[in-house]
Task: inverse folding
């Protein structure tokens, strides 16, 4: 018997992080996330005002969390493509250029591996 899995979201958000995102949207307007994996702050999910960040040709759109687009650099996507990213918020200092900086909270990526069925569903949908 073959079981089929629904196509999972590549990126999700915790309830606490979604509430924090909404508070940032209220303060800054339209925002986006980018996960670059670069040095320094780049290993954390960074939150920017949409008009302050240029999405590049090598950025991959992973999905929308709490009404906000989430992108990842193509090289980072290659590392993370087998996992679902779960965006959470924890106490701490945000990235230097991220909108969570100075709030006493910062975004954090948690992850889980996709099951074989979920990975097959993503592949079959061309995602």
Result:
């Amino acid at each position: 018997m073959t079981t089929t899995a629904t196509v999972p979201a590549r990126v999700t958000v915790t309830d606490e992080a979604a509430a924090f995102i909404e508070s940032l949207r209220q303060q800054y307007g339209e925002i986006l996330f980018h996960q670059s994996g670069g040095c320094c702050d780049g290993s954390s999910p960074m939150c920017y005002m949409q008009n302050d960040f240029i999405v590049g040709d090598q950025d991959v759109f992973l999905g929308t969390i709490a009404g906000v687009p989430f992108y990842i650099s193509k090289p980072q996507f290659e590392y993370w493509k087998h996992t679902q990213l779960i965006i959470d918020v924890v106490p701490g200092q945000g990235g230097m250029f991220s909108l969570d900086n100075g709030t006493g909270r910062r975004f954090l990526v948690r992850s889980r591996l996709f099951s074989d069925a979920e990975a097959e569903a993503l592949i079959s949908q061309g995602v």
